[in-house]
Amino acid sequence: xKPVIFHVDFDSYFVSAARVKNPKLKNFPIAISRDKxxxxxxxxxxxxxxxxxxxxxxxxxxxxxxPDAIFIPSDMDLYVSLSNKIFSxxxxxxxxxxxxxxxxxxxxxxxxxxxQKQIQPxxxxxxxxxxxxxxxxxxxxxxxxxxxxxxxMTTNISKPFGIGFTDENNYQDQFYNLDIKEFHxxxxxxxxxxxxxxxxxxxxxxxxxxxxxxxxAIFGRTLQDFLDKLNPDIWENVIYxxxxxxGIGNEKTFTDYDLxxxxxxxxxxxxxxxxxxxxxxxxxxxxxVVVTIRERNKVWISKQMKLSKYINSAQELYSVAYYIFKKxxxxxxxxxxxxxxxxxxPVKQLYKPINLFNLQELNSKPLFEQVLSEQGSDLHRKALLxxxxxxxxxxxxxxxxxxxxxxxx
Length: 409
What we know:
The chain is α+β, with helices and mostly antiparallel strands. It has four domains: 5-11 and 78-188, Reverse transcriptase/Diguanylate cyclase domain (Alpha-Beta Plaits, 2-Layer Sandwich), CATH 3.30.70; 14-75, MutS, DNA mismatch repair protein, domain I; 189-231, no CATH class; 247-400, Dna Ligase, domain 1, CATH 3.30.1490. It contains 15 helices and 13 strands. It has helices at 13-21, 46-49, 59-65, 76-93, 111-117, 121-136, 148-156, 171-175, 188-196, 202-206, 213-219, 223-228, 261-281, 314-328, 365-375; strands spanning 5-10, 30-32, 43-44, 70-72, 98-102, 105-109, 140-145, 163-165, 247-253, 284-295, 300-311, 334-346, 397-400. The protein has a five-stranded mixed sheet. A five-stranded antiparallel sheet has the order 9-12-10-11-13, with helices on one face. Strands 3-2-4 form a three-stranded mixed sheet. It is globular. One of its GO terms (biological process) is DNA repair. It comes from Mycoplasma nasistruthionis.
């Protein structure tokens, strides 16, 4: 029997979660965003999408389209807690073979359950969809196929609150007329490069050969992987493993671009506390700290530092983040800032205490004194970390026009 793979995606998850918390918001045009005109919406309801509003728009742009739009602040604790409950429920009731892809989506191998119940995949999907809605009040869309890529693509064309099935008999009808930008994993930049050489649709791409030099210039060694994704004869099983996020972070964009530098830097404290709270809620710790700023041209620039020990407290995270900022960004003009902790591991797997203090190594006293003199008053003279054990390998700079690290997709 061919494997039966479900891709389960929570519809407009942050909006749906907000409605679980406040049912009175149901059927209203909702955007998840801070209540500032230049704030960016990280999720919008289908009531807004139907009128042309898209995720990533600024509040004032949304108001121009839908004047009565309602803006609800983000609640990451709610999102993480609720999604974990849903994933656990699915794992315990439907299949142990689950792979969590992000905060609002997972892959599920239901092959054995289909055999046991002797039902059709769509029938099982309908049961699951109704079940999750009744128990958690979260609408979901389910894509069904024999591998994860086809299942994911099927979900994308079945939203909202839909169920779709793709196999070797209908995959061309399902996908080939779609714009090339809808090819999951290719990305916006490569999609435009493909259009520039005449590849407008997924069907156009399917006709290409591995020997195409123009495609090789775009994809390099990964070209064969992308071409293989459209092969319906590739089957795939999903095996459960405890998925860890690659990193957890928060960012803040300033609505007033002319704020004093001191005010913007103070945001590091707030962001470090938020990140620490989320990391500790999942019993994780990390040894790579990333600080990102958003320049006035809307481009994010990041620097990261690998530590010799794992950390997860707000104080430790702030001390490292502040050091990175002072070293690389102190003279930059920026309109947004972010903090991220990556290379995460469960705390239970760490044998050394999560602590940056090293009383044997106080060779970074000048840095400590600098932080103390410049930030001591802001921290109300709380104990500060000595950065003696920071390792400076893997310092990187990257430019990315996408939103920084709020989710783990």
